[in-house]
Amino acid sequence: MSKKILIVEDELDIANWFKKQLDLKGGYDVDLAEGGQQALDKIAKTQYDLIFLDLVMPEVDGTEVLKAIKTEPDKYKKAPIMALTNVTNDDTKKEVEKYGVKKFIVKTDADIDAVVDEFFK
């Protein structure tokens, strides 16, 4: 059975690039959410095996998504979350780590295949 992955990214070119990389690798059912609210709606309905979450998005940002998941565990299905962002300051890392983020991935440096392989070993 394929692993379900959600990519939450408001920049569609980036989201589609990551999705394409995973599709080429095979074995993954990849879903996209264009923003935080759409991500929360999907997470409430679907059990994902892994979520890549952009932190900087308009309206509902990644930190708000993390807070909602943590404060309303009966509403949102749990899944490991990896922060996918270009924000690299220590304060941001500390903020998202307190919500249980498993890894902090800089988009410009991301090797999505290696990250997924490492996670699903």
Structure explained in plain terms:
The chain has 121 residues and is of the alpha/beta class. The chain is built from five helices and five strands; from the N terminus they run βαβαβαβαβα. The protein has a five-stranded parallel β-sheet, with helices on both faces. α2 (36-45) packs parallel to α3. It starts with a strand and ends with a helix.
Unreliable spans are none
| Reported CATH architecture | 3-Layer(aba) Sandwich
Structural class: alpha/beta
- Domain tally: 1
Task: Kindly summarize this structure in a few lines.
With 121 residues, the chain is of the alpha/beta class. It contains five helices and five strands.
Task: Give the tags.
41% helix, Rossmann fold, alpha/beta, 5-stranded parallel sheet, 21% strand
Indicate the topology.
Layout: E1 3-8, H1 12-25, E2 28-33, H2 36-45, E3 50-54, H3 62-71, E4 81-85, H4 90-97, E5 103-106, H5 112-119
Parallel strand pairs: 1-2, 1-3, 3-4, 4-5
Helix pairs in contact: 2-3
